[in-house]
Amino acid sequence: MQFHKTNKQSLSTLRDSIREKKCPCCHATDSPLSSYMIITVKSVLLFTFNRKRIIIACPSCIISSAKKANITSSLLGWWGLPLGPLSTILAIMHNWAVFNSYSFNEPDEELIQYLEVISSKE
User: Fold this and answer.
1) 107: pLDDT confidence band, cut at 50, 70 and 90?
2) Torsion-angle region of residue 63: left (phi > 0), alpha (psi -120 to 50) or beta?
3) Residue 108 in contact with residue 34, Cβ under 8 Å?
4) How far apart are CA 93 and CA 79, in angstroms?
């Protein structure tokens, strides 16, 4: 996909066209796609690894990915000292927001920001 002279209007148009596609995870077409950053924490002894990834999918797949990330972080994130427990708590709190307050009906600004980053690299 080529981007030339990216502006807010073209990014909004692109975002809207992405939201109308089928979900890349489950192939559902019944709800608009959205984006959310999922954080997973894994620790080994003194080393703690935070993996941040943006997922573009339907609401049920985003929630499922957040649950999997929280389970993985809960089991594997605590073991690195001193940052493991803190990083794990912060990641779980971030991922938990998708269950409580995240609105999938509204076009999200995270997707626009993601598209801005991609377009600036090309």
Assistant:
1) low
2) alpha
3) yes
4) 18
The pLDDT-based confidence of 113 (bands split at 50, 70, 90) is: confident
99 band by pLDDT with thresholds 50, 70 and 90: confident
Residue 39 CA to residue 117 CA, distance in Å, equals 19
**Measured between alpha carbons, how far is 93 from 22 in angstroms, rounded to an integer?**
29
Pairs from 7-15 (Cβ < 8 Å, separation ≥ 24): 8/112, 11/112, 11/115, 11/116, 11/119, 12/107, 12/112, 14/115, 15/107, 15/111, 15/112, 15/115
Among 114, 103, 109, which residue's Cα sits nearest to residue 52? 114
| pLDDT tens-digit map of 10-21 | 888 888 898 899
Which H or E run contains 36?
strand 34-44
Question: Which amino acid is located at 105 in the chain?
Answer: N
Backbone torsions φ then ψ of 51, nearest 5 degrees = -110, 115
